[in-house]
Amino acid sequence: MAAIRYSKQREAIRMYLLSTKSHPTAEVVYNNIKNEYTRISLGTVYRNLNLLVEQGEALRLDCGDGVDHFDGDTRPHYHFACQGCGCVMDLDMDPIDHIDQIAGAGFDGEIQGHRVLFYGLCPNCKK
Amino acid sequence: MAAIRYSKQREAIRMYLLSTKSHPTAEVVYNNIKNEYTRISLGTVYRNLNLLVEQGEALRLDCGDGVDHFDGDTRPHYHFACQGCGCVMDLDMDPIDHIDQIAGAGFDGEIQGHRVLFYGLCPNCKK
DNA sequence: TAAAATAACAGTAACAATTACTATTATTTA
DNA sequence: TAAATAATAGTAATTGTTACTGTTATTTTA
């Protein structure tokens, strides 16, 4: 059972994720929430981020830097990681689900999906 | 400077990576090498795996479980992670570099490449 | 071939990201 | 409004990985 109860802290975390496109880490979320909830604990941030991901209200992203990033935009979309400044951006592109067919062609198991991360230089670093 | 010298331990690690298709973690490599080199240290395994990756003699894989995996097959190829048993397999498929074009179409930065991980059920778990 | 130079080692300590624990506080239910 | 209990803050523990240190092995060169 263990019903999920409302908490101001979790709501603030949720709102912060929805307000930004920066794909923050738990640490960054923590630092921002602290402005409003001075006494919030980093453990609370981690626990609630995990909860939000479980509930489908946030995505956990692996951006290749060994640290978890989080995204309040749960619609399926692709990400880009800049090798220059380390920023993570959304890509505005059509789904490429056809690659699942390509992968499944010579494979006896079942392809259920894919995780893709594009990398290169962001518009700023390109200059 | 700092020429790279031969060492039995590194050679054993390299050979082990070449001998398996299981994409082992550092821990797994350590446990296997220990059979032959009883006194080898986990730190040595990590240092040499990093060295091999730097030298282009091995690949570091991110399989979505938060732990680094290593692959002695450095030819470009794609990987599959089973959601059932957690195994990681090679996929025999054509390169899908065209997705870089798709991603770059509406993007001002520079797409240099992509990291893809397919997931689903392996042949065994599918049954 | 033997000794000097130094890279690699084993073992251990440190580190950073994350999770677990515990007593207290807040939300919900009746 | 009070009892029940989920969530919190604060802290300790865990895990994967890297750094450090004194010792050992490989290489160079005399």
Structure description:
Two copies of one chain form a homodimer. With 127 residues, chain A is of the alpha+beta class. In chain A, the strands form two sheets. The first copy, chain A, has a three-stranded mixed sheet. In chain A, a hairpin with a 5-residue loop joins β3 and β4. The mean pLDDT of chain A is 95. At the A-B interface, β3, α4, β5 and α5 of A face β3, α4, β5 and α5 of B. The first copy, chain A, binds a DNA duplex (30 and 30 nucleotides) through α1 and α3.
Share of β-strand residues of chain A: 15-25%
Can you give the mean pLDDT of chain A? 95
Whole-angstrom Rg of chain A: 17 Å
Looking at the chains present, what oligomeric state does this protein adopt? Answer: homodimer
Question: Which ranges of chain A are low-confidence, i.e. pLDDT below 50, for 5 or more consecutive residues?
Answer: none
> Which structural class should the secondary elements of chain A be placed in?
alpha+beta
Shape of chain A: globular
Percent of residues in helices of chain A comes to 25-40%
- In spatial order, strands of the major sheet of chain A run 4-3-5
Number of strands of chain A: 5
Largest interface: A-B, 38 and 37 residues
Distance between the termini of chain A: 54 Å
Descriptive labels:
23% strand; 127 residues; two-stranded antiparallel ribbon; homodimer; three-stranded mixed β-sheet; globular; DNA-binding
Summarize the structure.
The structure is a homodimer of 127-residue chains. Chain A has five helices and five strands; from the N terminus they run αααββββαβα.
